[in-house]
């Protein structure tokens, strides 16, 4: 089949007539020239330019993009013509870092708003206990140490939950707060050593406070009864629907164990998976032996739009009050009760030798590696590992991804382009959030101005993609990310940090479309609007180029289209 790129404007006189005749003759030569859907009278942002109409064929492929009168040549008896009434069409958005099952399960857990006060959290836990049976686990989140008045203690939970084990996860997902019953069921006491890559917080007497971090979280989390397949499917389905309503047509499930992979595959078999999904297998909370087995059997979960071709490796934690993000220079504050190298500069989960070997092996197997690397020392370790894989294997074509990149050393910035690696940043996280207060206190005012150095990454020639880390953030709204990338301000305008790292609207949109499509390895099919590409699209109520940057987060998704099918449509 041949496709037609129509002129964006009509040329005057004879040239216009010739252009129209040529367009019509080429259209008639198309094997499947009749469109099933035409979008007209709007603004079509193609990534490469603007148009006012487009035609989509029966197989979900874009037939034509251009002026309305020329696109209308593809109208047939069964064609649906939609008047956009000035709305804007963009390539479908990509989300490079989400946790769908976790997000869905949290909706039915003991959930409280981010930034809740200590009393609000305790009141909510008391309500959850009242609705539960004695001895039943109470799970939920998301708490923030700054709004609780400091790192919380197990005795606070004991007051409202004396007969139920409680485990509450913080906003970052890298710390849990539990009560005494949970500690006792896990067999954790003052004599329990910190596991490798984890911390059991202790008071001045050496007794556990009830806060566990990183790999220590699993000591208790493993005791919580897992959800069954129906519950897992319902949780993932809820997240799929939520993302469709946000115009997200492709995404990466950033930490996927076998239970979640099974749920995704089951939804695909049921016909409920519309988006294009990459599963990054593994994570902090998975047994390494289970992850290895899952990787070997990954093709069991492969489906037409489901690709289990990625592995997640955690290199560090988070640069907050926990001090688990691995930094090149010491943190600016101190952790009460801790005075060791880990508390001063964070935790590296892998030795340099081990991570180089692991990444080199995965590269040979055709698996893209996605790192969790928040601190600049972790980013460097990830880049070193990718460099080792390139030296051993040559360029495999896989774009290994360094995720989060909260802090990156200036000397490391150019390395991604040189070795064919990519950076993922989390633009949602510099919108107002208690977690930012924690980061600022931990690293100090000077380093915070270089947090998420997106401008410098792009100027260094790196491919940069966005990842919200939802449900660490409260909403999976790409337009929050677009706005904060462009303004480096709080939503709607206001003081923030890292103002020198702002980028343009087009650069931000490219991150969510063509850049991310390239990261996922399907930029030959989606990520831009052009004849021959697949029609993965989002229709929104305003042109991002024509509104104040501080209004971008107010953009409303009117419809989401995948493979030419309207899979979401907003109500009247």
UniProtKB/TrEMBL annotation:
<dbReference type="Pfam" id="PF07969">
    <property type="entry name" value="Amidohydro_3"/>
</dbReference>
<feature type="signal peptide">
    <location>
        <begin position="1"/>
        <end position="19"/>
    </location>
</feature>
<protein>
    <submittedName>
        <fullName>Amidohydrolase family protein</fullName>
    </submittedName>
</protein>
<keyword id="KW-0378">Hydrolase</keyword>
<feature type="domain" description="Amidohydrolase 3">
    <location>
        <begin position="80"/>
        <end position="568"/>
    </location>
</feature>
<dbReference type="GO" id="GO:0016810">
    <property type="term" value="F:hydrolase activity, acting on carbon-nitrogen (but not peptide) bonds"/>
</dbReference>
<dbReference type="InterPro" id="IPR013108">
    <property type="entry name" value="Amidohydro_3"/>
</dbReference>
<dbReference type="InterPro" id="IPR033932">
    <property type="entry name" value="YtcJ-like"/>
</dbReference>
<keyword id="KW-0732">Signal</keyword>
<dbReference type="InterPro" id="IPR032466">
    <property type="entry name" value="Metal_Hydrolase"/>
</dbReference>
<dbReference type="InterPro" id="IPR011059">
    <property type="entry name" value="Metal-dep_hydrolase_composite"/>
</dbReference>
